[in-house]
Amino acid sequence: MVRKLKKRNLFVSPSLERVADSEYLIVFPESADEHIQKHYEAVENLENDYLVVAEKELTEVTKSLKGHFASHNLLIDIAQGNNDQSRVAKLFTAGEREVKTILNNISKKDSLPWKYGSNRDFLRFLYNLGVRALSTSSLKKAEEIFKNILRLNPSDDQDVKEILVDTLFDLGKYDEIISISKNYDHSKNSAMIFNEILCHYIKGDLDSAKALISDLTEENISVFRNLLDGEGNILDDSSAHNYIPISVIQNKSLFYWENFREYWESCPGSIDFLKENIKPGEAPPTAAAELKSDLEICPLENFGEHLTEKKLKETTVKEHMDNIRLFEGVLSSKEGVLERVLEIYKGGLTKSRLNKIITTLNQYFRFVIEDKEALKEVLSDLKTLREGLLNSM
Question: DSSP string of 94-141?
Answer without folding.
Answer: HHHHHHHHHHTTS-TT-B--TTSGGGHHHHHHHHHHHHHHHHTT-HHH
